[in-house]
Amino acid sequence: MLHTRTTWIRTGIGLTALSALLLTGCAADDDAASFSDGDETQDAALSGDTDEPQETETPEPNYEYRVTSGFFYQGVSKDLTTVNTVRPTNKTVTTPAGTLTINQVDELSDIDADAVGLEQKYDEATTEILPYGPAEGEVLRVIDFAFVASDTEGAPSTDLSLKINGTQTHVAELRGSDADRILLSVPADGSAQLVVSSDGHDQFVDLLTGERADDPVTATYYRDVTRQEPHHVLKIDSSEFQTWLDWLEQDIVDTVSYDVQIDSVELTPWQPEKGWAPEGRTWAAIDWTYDINKSSDESWGDLRIESFQFDLAVNSNDEQAAISIAEADTSRSSFDGPGHIDYVSVPVGTTTLTLSVAGQTTMVEREATLKEGVDPTASFSSGELALDFPDGDLPSTEDEPAEDETDEPATDETEAPEDAS
């Protein structure tokens, strides 16, 4: 939907009266008249004869018609006459629902009435159609943006609003992919902002430059690396239980195998259940599966898994968190955890995550019995999986000394610099 502000302001062209003061002096002799204080600097300034560069201000065009302060119009054409185009560096704004990209900001001196749905005004003498200028003390800008929706399940909507002269005006709710061009009249002092809101948190974009302001809450979105997809199976030794099957008078070995796979790990400042991470923290979203399975030498009278529990430990910056799993069902010989995502809180500056598993399995007797001295509970653990999330510039190999370089101290036998004269 197009939003239009049709109010206009007519300003008269004022005439400034000029006056001059004529200073004359006379004397009996040939001495010229001069200022009594002898201020040579002031004399030079008055005469225009000075080495100091003189700053001149370009007068603001005196438009007969102007838009109102904070005027904006959505869906403006690309076929406009611009005086400059700014392409921002920090041009993306990421939210749980997707990513907003500021493609460019166009600078305009004025705008035709029909381009923004305003009433056309004419010069009384020439009948020429007159343009509209920005509001007094403001400038005209066109912000060109696109929004690409994410596939995050349960993500809240993203809302756009304009904050101009202390007043915040809602512009649009972004739920799917979209694009728009909005013409605005904004203060020339850079105080106007595009506000990007999601789940109770705001991010800000400068409407003069299109640059996103730094924000500690969402900083994780803008890191160099936020996602790793190892699809790695943690190595875990199987547990063996020696049993005796009486009616067969036979020893049987029951084996429990463990399969824990880490599919992906992503650092993100927001998650569906708990929203934005606390200050100084971020979420590690772990997509993983597990499978606990018992096999036997003999299908008759074997053991069953009575229960098991284990922790998926997540270590970061000498801090440990854990995802705990526990199940008990004596009627089953296998358990599995289908692909799902669990979240743990880690420090916002995390650059390495280490994951590992440790737990216990307890067996229950059926037809077979555990041999004397065999513990029905076995412990198991895995090796570690380390995932790196580098941020910022990596160390340059150019800073490392070459192989033929030595650590010998420099001598004083240096050439004197040539005389530039």
UniProtKB/TrEMBL annotation:
Keywords: Signal. This is Uncharacterized protein. Residues 33-42, 49-58, 396-421 have a biased composition (Acidic residues). The lineage of its organism: Bacteria, Bacillati, Actinomycetota, Actinomycetes, Micrococcales. The keyword Signal applies. Coiled coil: none annotated. Residues 1-28 form the signal peptide. Residues 33-61, 374-421 are annotated as: Disordered.
